[in-house]
Specification:
The complex is a heterodimer of chains A (114) and B (113).
Chain A (H helix, E strand, L loop, with lengths): L2 E3 L4 E5 L4 E3 L2 E3 L6 E7 L6 E7 L7 E2 L2 E6 L4 E6 L8 E9 L4 E4 L3 E6 L1
Parallel strand pairs in A: 2-12
Antiparallel strand pairs in A: 1-4, 3-9, 5-6, 5-10, 7-8, 8-9, 10-11, 10-12
Chain B lengths: L3 E4 L2 E4 L5 E7 L5 E7 L5 E9 L2 E4 L6 E3 L9 E3 L8 E8 L8 E2 L3 E5 L1
Parallel strand pairs in B: 2-11
Antiparallel strand pairs in B: 1-3, 3-8, 4-5, 4-9, 5-6, 7-8, 9-10, 9-11
The chains are: A mainly beta (114), B mainly beta (113).
C-alpha cells in the first residue's frame, strides 16, 4: 500500500517570501500522479498543482512549483511571493491508477504573516 | 455547472441513530468517492465507485454503506452512529481524463453525541 508523509505539521512564512513544504511517499509503482491540495478555513479542497510521474519536468502553476525527485520519492511544494490568501492546510496526495484512488498525507498548516 | 454538491452541511446525531449523506455530481463523471477527515488529519477513503452499480471498500469502510444506482448520485449511509464517526465527510468525483483530478464537494460536518 502507498503511504504519504508530510513531516512538517506547521510552517510560517512572511508575506512576499518563499516557503517550501515537504512530502515523501512510498510506492512500488512506476506510473502514478502526485497532487498538492489546499484546504482554506472554508474546508473546500482546492487543487493547487499536479505532477505526472513519467514527466521529468517539474510542474509549475503561477507562484506554485514542485520539486519532484522520483528516485528519492520526494515531492515538495514551493510557494513564491507568499500572499495572505495562501494561508491554509496543504495536503500532498498520491494517486494510483487503480480506480484513481487518492492517498493523502496528514497535512501542513501554513501561516502567512505580515 | 454546480460540480459536486453534498447535503446536509452540518448534522448532529445521537448514538445509535442512522442517516444518509447525499452526494450528487453533474459532470457525468464515472468515478465517485467518499472520504472522511478527522481533526488535524488528512482525508481517508471510505468507499468508492467506478460506475453505476459498482462499489468497493476503501481504507476505512466499517460502519458505512454506499450504493450507486445512477451516475450522478452516490449516497453514504451511516448505520448505528458511533462517536468515532464524528468527522467531516467529503464526496468527490473524477472523470476518465488524463489529469485524473478529483473534484470535491464542500463537505458535511457530522457530530455524534
Amino acid at each position: 500500500a502507498q503511504t504519504v508523509t508530510q513531516s512538517q505539521p506547521e510552517m510560517s512564512v512572511q508575506e512576499a517570501e518563499t516557503v517550501t513544504l515537504s512530502c515523501t511517499y512510498d510506492t512500488s509503482e512506476s506510473d502514478y500522479y502526485l497532487f498538492w491540495y489546499k484546504q482554506p478555513p472554508s474546508r473546500q479542497m482546492i487543487l493547487v498543482i499536479r505532477q505526472e510521474a513519467y514527466k521529468q519536468q517539474n510542474a509549475t502553476e503561477n507562484r506554485f512549483s514542485v520539486n519532484f525527485q522520483k528516485a528519492a520519492k520526494s515531492f515538495s511544494l514551493k510557494i513564491s511571493d507568499s500572499q495572505l490568501g495562501d494561508a491554509a492546510m496543504y495536503f500532498c496526495a498520491y494517486l494510483t491508477g487503480t480506480a484513481s484512488k487518492l492517498t493523502f498525507g496528514t497535512g501542513t498548516r501554513l501561516q502567512v504573516t505580515l | 455547472n454546480a460540480g459536486v454538491t453534498q447535503t446536509p452541511k452540518f448534522r448532529i446525531l445521537k448514538i445509535g441513530q442512522s442517516m444518509t449523506l447525499q452526494c450528487t455530481q453533474d459532470m457525468n463523471h464515472n468515478y465517485m468517492y467518499w472520504y472522511r477527515q478527522d481533526p488535524g488529519m488528512g482525508l481517508k477513503l471510505i468507499y468508492y465507485s467506478v460506475g453505476a452499480g459498482i462499489t468497493d471498500k476503501g481504507e476505512v469502510p466499517n460502519g458505512y454503506n454506499v450504493s450507486r444506482s445512477t451516475t450522478e448520485d452516490f449516497p453514504l449511509r451511516l448505520e448505528l452512529a458511533a462517536p468515532s464517526q464524528t468527522s467531516v465527510y467529503f464526496c468527490a468525483s473524477s472523470g476518465l481524463a488524463v489529469s485524473y483530478e478529483q473534484y470535491f464537494g464542500p463537505g458535511t460536518r457530522l457530530t455524534v453525541t
